[in-house]
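seq:
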Amino acid sequence: MKIKNLESIIILLVLLNVFTLFKLNNVKNSIERQMQQNEHEINNLENNINNIYTNVDAKLKKQASVLDSYDVQIRGELNPNNYTVPVTLTITPKEYSDELTATLQLNNKNIPMQKKGTSFKCTFDVYIFDDFKLKIILEQNGIQKIESIEEYSKLQYKYLLDIFGGFSGKESYSSGIYKFDGDISLNFGNSQNNSPIKASLGKYLNGTIVSEQEVELSDHMDIPVNDSIELNANDKFMLCVNVQDKYGINYKYVVMLYEIDSKGKSVNIRPEWSNGSIIEISDKNGNILYTPEYILVE
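struct:
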């Protein structure tokens, strides 16, 4: 009889534990749902506050502005002779009179704007590799009102090629010989404004080209490579795809970097850009136009 009572008690305790665990799990799930809901509500509140600040800031700027509106258009073709593009600016002042004049201050250069009804307009050229700031000077009866409206940078990416890809394969270094065997995969973007016209594969040793061969051009390039080069202490080898676009601009695109240190051993740490990045942009005469910031000039 006592054994049966003990079994009943054990069964009861087990059922009680199962029930307790079930309730605890429900409580845990409920707390987690509540925490997620609270977090979601906090995020929504923060977004609403940020939107309020943004809207208030925009209204304050609009209220303090001397302009009712302005419009900047960058739509022209790139001039391949000086790498400039035309920009058209139109402004409408809040207060207009026949005596009012408007001048665009482009960086440190002043450009008179022409009247178009109650608005002012001008077209000017900008060098795509330079940052530029636009300021408006409104003048009437010797009193000037100056306002900054826009600041532009990295305009070159609107007109230059996008190149992406890299090397995949096997590499080895032994007895002073570096060997590589694999494929270079390359793609081009930004085809609406630009396109490649020719490409070549160049081998560089310590910054000097040692060989170059033209490769067949296509929208998607797969270039098989199986080669070797002798490398000694402090040598730096780069394998690059050199591309020229329709404007005559040349791109040096590195797909492989291999370095030997002063002790004759390979350098294990390689920069992120060393397998698929543009490291230099030059004109048709070889003059450097642009070097990305991630390259350290030695």
